[in-house]
Specification:
Layout: H1 17-68, E1 97-98, H2 101-104, E2 124-127, H3 130-133, H4 140-144, E3 153-156, E4 164-165, E5 173-174, E6 180-183, E7 185-189, E8 218-220, E9 237-241, H5 243-252
Parallel strand pairs: 3-8
Antiparallel strand pairs: 1-2, 2-7, 3-6, 4-5, 7-9
Helix pairs in contact: 1-5
Bound molecules: calcium ion (2 copies).
């Protein structure tokens, strides 16, 4: 059966310039909507990759401790990828060094021997030097005994004015609730802006030392924030080693008690 087309419906032979302009604007908006999330996705992937690297490094540190009965000292600019001093003991820069990638056998590394994050910046590593450097001295933890050991690295949540009290001092602690007050080691990346150094207030507490005081033992860790945030831009990726995980691995390996 043939359907009758109402007479008032008529068809033109093309699009007007106005119609084309409207279509182009809509297409441009759709493309912009796709492009911005894509760059954001790349950044998320880079952060996730760095988080995975840091977790692997924490695992390598635990393996090193199980084999050697101690954690390695951080590397320094002078030692390149090796712990400083080699053989452990009192670390040259317990709170302000780099990951000793050569000592741990971690890759990829840059031309100076430092393990690098997704943004090609050296990965940082700090270790507690409490109990007369027991954590980095061969058999130091066994000699001190678990009940006496008191690792003292502080991880603060930041995002408040003065997140760290006595910043830079030997007794630097978190203002408010800390994420950890007993971290044995802190492993971190300075994030996407690590090459230029972030300008945010929270980022100023990483890397150590803050204000040139090598004893500074406080770090900041929270989700990424833009420069418009109260404490400024923050993109560092920070993880830490709990003493309970370390002790459990050392007991399993026969290095403790
Ligand atoms: Ca940063
Ligand atoms: Ca600090």
């Amino acid at each position: 059966m043939k359907t009758a087309v109402p007479q008032r419906l008529t068809f033109s032979n093309g699009f007007t310039l106005t119609e084309m302009a409207v279509v182009l604007v809509i297409v441009a908006l759709l493309i912009a909507g796709l492009v911005i999330p894509f760059s954001a996705q790349q950044d998320i992937r880079a952060r996730q990759e760095t988080e995975r690297m840091l977790s692997d490094i924490r695992e390598a540190l635990l393996g090193y401790a199980a084999a050697n009965g101690r954690l390695p000292c951080p590397a320094t600019a002078a030692s390149n990828g090796l712990e400083d001093p080699v053989g452990g003991g009192v670390c040259t820069s317990a709170h302000g060094g780099f990951l000793p990638s050569g000592t741990l056998g971690i890759a990829p590394i840059n031309s100076n021997g430092f393990a690098v994050d997704t943004w090609n910046q050296p990965i940082r590593y700090a270790v507690s030097n409490s109990n007369a450097s027991a954590f980095t001295t061969a058999n130091g933890m066994r000699a001190a005994t678990i009940t006496v050991l008191a690792p003292d690295l502080q991880v603060c949540p930041g995002q408040v004015a003065s997140p760290v009290s006595n910043a830079g001092a030997a007794n630097a602690t978190c203002n408010g609730t800390a994420l950890s007050t007993t971290a044995v080691a802190v492993i971190y990346s300075l994030g996407r802006n690590g090459g230029t150094g972030g300008a945010g207030t929270d980022e100023s507490h990483n890397p150590n030392p803050n204000s040139g005081v090598a004893a500074d033992r406080a770090f900041i860790s929270h989700l990424e924030t833009p420069s418009s945030a109260p404490q400024g831009e923050f993109d560092d990726v920070v993880i830490w080693l709990s003493p309970n995980i370390l002790y459990s691995r050392l007991i399993a390996a026969g290095q403790l008690p």
